[in-house]
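Comment thread on ticket #2218

A.B. wrote:
> Attaching the input chain for the structure job we discussed in standup.
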Amino acid sequence: MTNPLRDPLDRRLPRIAGPSGLVIFGVTGDLAKKKLMPAVYDLANRGLLPPSFALTGFGRRSWSDEDFAQVVHDAVREHARTPFDERTWKQLATGFRFVQGEFDDDAAFDELARTVTALDTEQGTGGNHAFYLSVPPDAFPLVLRQLARSGLSGSEPESWRRVVIEKPFGHDLTSARELDAVVSEVFPPDSVFRIDHYLGKETVQNILALRFANQLFEPIWNANYVDHVQITMAESIGIGSRAGYYDGIGAARDVIQNHLLQLLALTAMEEPVSFEADALRAEKEKILSAVQIPEDLDSHTARGQYAGGWQGGEEVRGYLEEDGIPPTSETESYAAVRLDIDTRRWAGVPFYLRAGKRLGRRVTEIAVVFKRAPHLPFDLTSTQELGANALVIRVQPDEGVTIRFGAKVPGTAMEVRDVTMDFGYGHAFTQDSPEAYERLILDVLLGDPPLFPRQKEVELSWQILDPILEHWARRGQPEPYAPGSWGPSSADAMLARDGRTWRRP
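C.D. wrote:
> Ran it. Output below, let me know if you need it in another format.
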């Protein structure tokens, strides 16, 4: 797992984690198997983990260390991004350990403490350990208190202990504050890493490069030129086997409160004085604190539930027919909101956010739609197919940026039509983009926090969303929409009232 030799002056040289260990709670879950374990291997394969790295699993299964190693092996073989390398694997596997137990089992956490201490000697982890809570949110307080009771959260002056918490960070403002109170009892703020995996995606980080590394865009990134912004996260699948988590949560809590509001903040924020964590977070917090929700929530929000029907040549069940969903559930599988930002840069520019399941296709994008030219020196027939200019940042699945503008159609007549100019990561760069969890896990081990929202951002996001959720709770059943469509008719009506339409990605 040594890093290949490179020119020491090469600025592309990645930072390599020092001696450290990662403990995963919830090691038998899908997140650990499909994302976390493969990400650890991919980091090792790229030379970004030291030979002294250790990976410890904690779970109820009666596994030996060898059994756990086989589970990791299978997960890596199936889901790793980089090719399997036997030398990398053998080195990595020397640091695998497994501890059996329940979250309320004092003896199991005492054994975990002994295991971690032994790794400092046997593997050379140096007392540096991160605890990844890939567990249901209601288990967070119990695990945190066990870490404190067993002494696992404490560190020596020359070492560190950190905790990683997966979203959701509460289900409303009150619960978010309650969770933070528990976390703060056990770990100091700079040792708490709240994971939003969207912030680890290359394209999301490229928003900052696009805006602040180029003179081309920033002068027009304001209300003088921008008509509106649309931020979309659409999935073509239903909830699958996630009924236990999803019902009662819904699209707004699951996606808008975290992913989409973070994308809004990165799109709308002012230039930070540096890209240090505090400076970046300060600008995001300013934007989130300036967000205004509509006065008329009936007219400027929409929510829906997907119905049964045909999608992609396959008959699919409606939300209320999914396994584990009560027939009277009022949980939305689609949510759309209009938000405004009360700053000089964005005054009068609406931001439309939407997220949903069983929609037309899987796509996440930010579309900055510009105002039309104030004067067109053409006759009407020449520009009847000309739309508004737009800059579209594609987050997934085909990461890149598209610019839509008008161009003359070849021929003798003056006919102007929309064309696109496209940048794709896969075409422009020879190396593959790291998976989001690779970047985020490495940042945890390095103690580098810019991509992790802190508690104030979490609270500001809930302050935006809570009044909308409370309003919806009084409205009863969400509106049904057809699978494979782009959501309920109320979402189209929401933009139509403003004289606009949704983009069809």
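A.B. wrote:
> Thanks. Noting for the ticket: DSSP finds 15 helices and 18 strands in the chain.
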